[in-house]
Amino acid sequence: MKFHIKTYGCQMNERDSEEVAMLLARSGHAPASCEAEADAIVVNTCSVREKAEVKALGKIRMLLAAKREQPARIVGVMGCMAQRLGESLVRRLRGLDFVVGTQRLAAIPAILDAVRAGKGPIVDCGERRLESEASLTHRAGGHSALVNILLGCDRRCSYCVVPLVRGREWSRPACQVLEEVGALVRHGVRDITLLGQSVMSYGAKQSVWEGAPASPGGYREPFPRLLEAVNAIPGLKRLRFMSGHPSGCTEELVRAMAELPAVCEHLHLPVQSGSDRILKRMNRGYTLDDYREAVRRIRARIPAAAVTTDIIVGFPSETPAEFEETRRFMDEIGFDNAFIFKYAPREGTTAAEWKDDVSADEKMRRNKILLEEQNRRSLQINEKQVGCDCEVRVEGVSRRTAARWTGLTRTAKSVMFEPFAGIQEGDSIRVGIERAMPQTLYGSVRLPGR
Ligand code: 5AD
Ligand code: SF4
Question: Which of 129, 308, 355, 357 could share a disulfide with 337, CB 3.0–4.6 Å?
Answer without folding.
Answer: 308
